[in-house]
Amino acid sequence: MTDRKRIYIRRCFYAVLFFLGLAVLLTVVSFIFSPKDNTEEAGMEEVFANGILGEPEDTIDVLVAGDSYSYTSTIPPQIWKETGITCYASGTNDQSLDYTLVMLKRAFRKQNPKLVLLEASPIYREITPFGRLTAALSSVFPIFHYHDRWKSLRGEDFTRRPEYTLTKDYKGYKYFTKIVPAPDTDNMVKTDEAEPIPESSRYYMKKILKFCQDHGAVLALMSAPNRTYWNYSRHNGISALAEELGCDYIDANLAAEEIGIDWEHDTCDGGDHLNHAGSVKATQFVTGYLTSLGILEDHREDPKYSHWDKALKKYEKQVRKEDI
């Protein structure tokens, strides 16, 4: 063996040793920096969406994912009252598909939903190569996601394993009553044009679909009623993508009149998001789809789900209070 070859082998050995040591270090630091509970005090981000982590194991039938349009158009307590189907809205503001995958992986560690209902709007939110790299690193080493937590670390963060205790009575739904009318425009004028899907979104949609399939869940896409962000060309783009992926796509914008959406009174910000009155109507549309699948159970007589009745009472009390 030549000296040059020996030097090359030695350098390779030291390089492997360095990266192994780095991986071990990142694993240890990631454990320390990861929140040990899903509360804001423990450092968890998006506590409404991550409230699903505090739900009893294997009690969520439907996981609603996506951005803010998802948590303002789906009311899980209403779905429970009408069908006995358990649903959690894990949408987050301006969510991109890389974070959707992160949220799915978290939820499926404790839950086994039969259906993942994904709001389609994030599919048109492009993810940069840097964003993809950051998402990939964060999925393996959470330190890349929670690096700012050094300011709030406590002694228990060094030894305690995560134990999630927080859940939300509205199951991720955010309650808005403000009324800001939408412009009197028709954003769903029919066209044959289809807005192209970003390649980064195609990449993540395939990963999301495979993740759902690997965990025995059905993936379906939906679009909440929206007058500012959605249009017919985007509808066509998502319809083509859904056909390509082999999943359902329900667009409430095509049924807005049938649903009864009143753009003068059912939106809180000029047509971008629904207020509570609009959310009630949109939820009825979603409920119709859920019951049509025939794969979701009615748990209302099961004592294991009695906490849902308690959550429903709190939700209805809030609604009555607002109606006064």
Please describe what this structure looks like.
With 324 residues, this protein is an alpha/beta fold. It has one domain (34-322): SGNH hydrolase (Rossmann fold), CATH 3.40.50.1110. The protein is 42% helix and 7% strand. The protein has ten helices and five strands. The protein has helices at 3-33, 68-71, 76-83, 97-108, 129-140, 199-214, 232-245, 256-259, 276-293, 306-323; strands at 62-65, 87-89, 115-119, 218-223, 248-251. Strands 2-1-3-4-5 form a five-stranded parallel sheet. Helix 7 (232-245) links the parallel strand 4 and strand 5. Helix 3 packs across helix 9 and helix 3 (76-83) crosses helix 10 (306-323). It is globular, with a radius of gyration of 22 Å. 35% of the residues are buried. The model has no long low-confidence stretch (mean pLDDT 89).
Short descriptors:
324 residues; Rossmann fold; globular; 10 helices; five-stranded parallel sheet; alpha/beta
The share of residues in extended strands comes to 5-15%
Order of helices and strands: HEHHEHEHHEHEHHH
Lateral arrangement of strands in the main beta sheet: 2-1-3-4-5
Low-confidence regions: none
The helix tally amounts to 10
CATH class, named Alpha Beta
Query: Considering the protein shown, what is the CATH homologous superfamily?
Result: SGNH hydrolase
By DSSP, the count of extended strands is: 5
What is the straight-line distance between the termini? 88 Å
Number of domains: 1
> Largest sheet at a glance?
5 strands, parallel
Structural class: alpha/beta
**What value does the average pLDDT take?**
89
Helix coverage percent: 40-55%
